[in-house]
């Protein structure tokens, strides 16, 4: 098997793992009474510890150099809090307020937010293809939120708000670490960022005050989210996109909302109407429209 085919497989599996973890998060919040703050913190700290231990073994010298560079460490902390922490919390809360499929698709609005910010930064107007993507995204969001009605919302106002916040958070997650990733790669900043973001979140949200009943099922699904939905998903997706390129990787990553929608419908009996699917298609189409450099 050549490198490109391996990259495609890695990317698809990584995106699928993210989609599965979204459904697992929906199950814990909806059926097990898990607080999204607690789940967010366990996911960040758990994945952060695992990645940091991996780096200490595999990239010890690079990690030592990184920790001796104050500007890089400060940038990583900003990334951990403003990017990773915000992204995880907003996404899981959006799932709790809607469902895994809808929240994951709404998060893909970040493609448009990134486009608009880049246009402002470069002081240029969107070109025709980019304008088509913006229109497609707006139409898709309108259909998901209202099912075509001009007078009422189909999903809750809170669900729509947290879906937009998840997209804003994903935008920050993409933009904040650009220089950091260029200088140090992605594994070290992500591992340390997750750990620092989880620690900050623990104290800011006073997570120790949140009570939850841990039984075998809750522990197993939480471990699945941390190991499969975070560590494995990130590692495979990162490796896959390095082999197929970021544009194709982004398109292949669209398996994430597809998997989240299928799993939510099959395992949690979430009902998606035809208007939902059409809206999802319009939003995901923006990724393919913007894929060309």
Please outline the helices and strands.
Blueprint: H1 3-31, H2 36-58, H3 60-67, H4 70-97, H5 100-107, H6 110-122, H7 128-146, H8 157-175, H9 178-184, H10 187-204, H11 216-244, H12 246-252, H13 255-267, H14 274-289
Question: What report would you give on this structure?
Answer:
This protein is mainly α. 81% of the residues lie in helices and 0% in strands. The protein has helices at residues 3-31, 36-58, 60-67, 70-97, 100-107, 110-122, 128-146, 157-175, 178-184, 187-204, 216-244, 246-252, 255-267, 274-289. The longest helix has 29 residues, at 3-31. The two termini are 27 Å apart.
| Basic shape | globular
H/I helix tally: 14
Work out the number of β strands: 0
Query: How confident overall, as mean pLDDT?
Result: 87
Helix fraction, binned, reads over 70%
List keywords for this structure.
293 residues, mainly alpha, 14 helices, 81% helix
Summarize the structure.
The chain has 293 residues and is mainly alpha-helical. It is 81% helix and 0% strand.
